[in-house]
Structure formats: C-alpha cells, structure tokens
Design brief:
The chain is of the alpha+beta class. It is built from 2 helices and 5 strands, in the order βαββαββ. Strand 2 and strand 3 form a beta hairpin. The chain is globular. It starts with a strand and ends with a strand.
Length: 91
C-alpha cells in the first residue's frame, strides 16, 4: 500500500547535511517527495511511496546524519497523491 507522510524533524538538523542525506536515503529506498529547511531551524519533508519504505525513511529521520542531533520527529499522514517522480531538495 502506498502512503504519504509529512515529516518535521526538530533539533540540530540544519548545517549538518540533513537534506543531502535524506535525498540519498530516499533514492536508495525508492521513496518520492521532497525535503526542505524551515526558517525556524527544523527540516520538513514530504515522503510518498510503499508504506514499509516510507516508514524506513521516517525511522532514519529519527537518527539523521552523524552530525545531527534529532530531538523530535513529527509525522502527519495524508492521503497518497502520487504526485512525485523522484526526490529532491526544495528551497
């Protein structure tokens, strides 16, 4: 089953290549969507794809890259839309 999740990662997550590593993991997993920095210092992403693969990317977000210090991850489920062909960084 395909799902869509809006994920907000809170903590020391900007300036540590979080977006870059998220793109790499999403592409390896076959998850579509995007990731971006928010003005308040959080990182937000929209992940679409197979439920198990999206869940694996969400689990990775709880750790992030080695220099990140994740404090909390908020996950909001939305209806699957299938609107993405790949995964990229939004600015």
């Amino acid at each position: 089953m395909n799902i869509r999740a809006i994920v907000t990662v809170i903590g020391l997550v900007q300036g540590v290549a979080f977006r870059h590593h998220t793109v790499q993991h999403a592409c390896r997993l076959g998850v579509a969507g995007w990731v971006r920095n928010l003005p308040n210092g959080d990182v937000q992403g929209c992940f679409e794809g197979d439920e198990a693969r999206v869940q694996a990317l969400i689990e990775w977000c709880h750790r992030g890259p080695s220099r990140a210090r994740v404090e909390r991850v908020i996950v909001e489920r939305e209806p699957y839309r299938g609107e993405f062909n790949g995964f990229d960084v939004r600015y």
